[in-house]
Design brief:
This protein has one domain (about 5-70). Helix 1 packs antiparallel against helix 2. By secondary structure, the chain is mostly helical. About 85% of the residues lie in helices and about 0% in strands.
Length: about 80
């Protein structure tokens, strides 16, 4: 298992997840506390923010499994 590749995947995926999570939390509390955002617009914004969060989380999990299984090292043999 390559530690540099694992840390690179965790760092890039983790930072992206933190970035979008921050906006999700800010919009959630901003929408709930102020009440200025119409409910439909609020729901659409939440969905727009959740889609990349789930996608990057799944891609990060797949990349970690790929690094741990050594698939990339196996393909270099051919």
């Amino acid at each position: 298992m390559n530690k540099k590749k694992l840390w690179g995947a965790l760092l890039s995926g983790g930072l992206f997840i933190l970035y979008f999570s921050f906006f999700f939390i800010v919009l959630t509390f901003g929408g709930v506390l102020t009440g200025d955002i119409p409910m439909l617009a609020f729901i659409i914004m939440m969905i727009i923010l959740l889609i990349p969060l789930f996608g990057v989380s799944l891609a990060l999990i797949m990349r970690i499994r790929e690094i741990k299984d050594g698939e990339e090292e196996e393909s270099k043999k051919y």
